[in-house]
Design brief:
The chain is mainly α and about 150 residues long. About 70% of the residues lie in helices and about 0% in strands. Keywords: Coiled coil.
């Protein structure tokens, strides 16, 4: 079933996100940006959490989360422990909401028009791809900076 697959993938890669942020030897390095790289790992982490908390938490789960996308990229030097706590909360939200989705709700159009009209199941796969894309950038950033 698709919900089980999504739960396994989001669980695995949100755990990897925690591992990547924790793996920086120097906390300040999380926020460094080198030439040719637009975003720090810290900002990508904030962006991923904001994205998932908005689309899965607020839109599908009605959590009341209010996204401030600009701050995802403008905030700097958020302590590592705060980033890790945010990832943990995001993981719980994502998994709780996905577990509660029925097969019927997955086949319905996603409630917010984002990339044209798309079914909820396809949009969740898109969100997973977005997570994985930025997770790869964070991994590259960490290895480049260290």
């Amino acid at each position: 079933m698709l919900t089980e697959i999504l739960i396994n993938l989001f669980e695995r890669d949100l755990s990897k996100l925690e591992d990547e942020i924790a793996a920086y030897e120097n906390e300040a390095a999380i926020w460094q940006v080198r030439e040719g790289i637009k975003n720090s790992a810290g900002n990508l982490c904030l962006h991923l959490c904001g994205n998932l908390q908005h689309f899965i938490g607020a839109i599908l789960g009605k959590t009341g989360y209010v996204r401030d996308r600009d701050r995802e990229f403008s905030d700097k030097h958020v302590p590592r422990q705060d980033l890790l706590a945010l990832v943990s909360v995001t993981r719980r939200t994502v998994l709780t909401v996905i577990v509660g989705l029925s097969p019927e709700s997955l086949s319905q159009p996603f409630p917010e028009k984002v990339l044209g009209e798309m079914s909820t199941d396809k949009f969740l796969v898109h969100l997973y791809g977005h997570l994985n894309y930025h997770l790869g950038q964070i991994n590259y950033h960490r290895r480049l900076i260290q």
